[in-house]
Amino acid sequence: MTGGEGxxxxxxCLGVIVGARGLKGDLxxxxxxxxxxxxxxxxxxxxxxxxRRIDLRVTGQTKDVLIAxxxxxxxxxxxxxxxxxxxxxxxxxxxxxxxxxxxxxxxxGLTVEAPQGNLGTVRxxxxxxxxxxxxxxxxxxxxxxVPFTRAIVPVVDIDGGRLVVDPPDGLLDDNGPDEGxxxx
Length: 184
What we know:
This protein is mainly β and 184 residues long. The protein folds into two domains: 11-91, Beta Barrel (Elongation Factor Tu (Ef-tu), domain 3), CATH 2.40.30; 107-164, PRC-barrel domain (SH3 type barrels), CATH 2.30.30. It has two helices and 13 strands, in the order ββββββαβαββββββ. The strands form three sheets. A six-stranded mixed beta sheet has the order 11-10-9-8-13-12. It starts with 10 loop residues before the first strand and ends in a 20-residue tail after the last strand.
């Protein structure tokens, strides 16, 4: 993944195997592609180290995951062994993002600046259904979740390895429990 130095990663995680389905080796795959089925559009996938090639064939889809078959996986035991395997592709096989679009992997590791102080670095990017959210940690405010919108993140400087955040009122306020364990 990208570090704070602003260089883009050579490989991008396109999905993860989240489990097995049935007895014949079907895999449940969470795709991170904009169109989930496109996980197979960029050629064979590999594990994080690049030492294992995974040829997926999508056979179906449920609400949250794809159902797929992989060469050499013929039963549930073999499928279960792949649970948690993240699936990568070389970045040069992917189309470049449009202006004001970013691959999640480009954002992870960027330093986050705000008028209130150092927020740390982007640790994760989530999409819970209402838009992208950045998880930022390691700064003056602990771990914070920030909506990834132009209004809140007006500067994205991939080459410079940084983001500038203009958090909405109250986002960085200390609203945790007080010493008595009760909410403030």
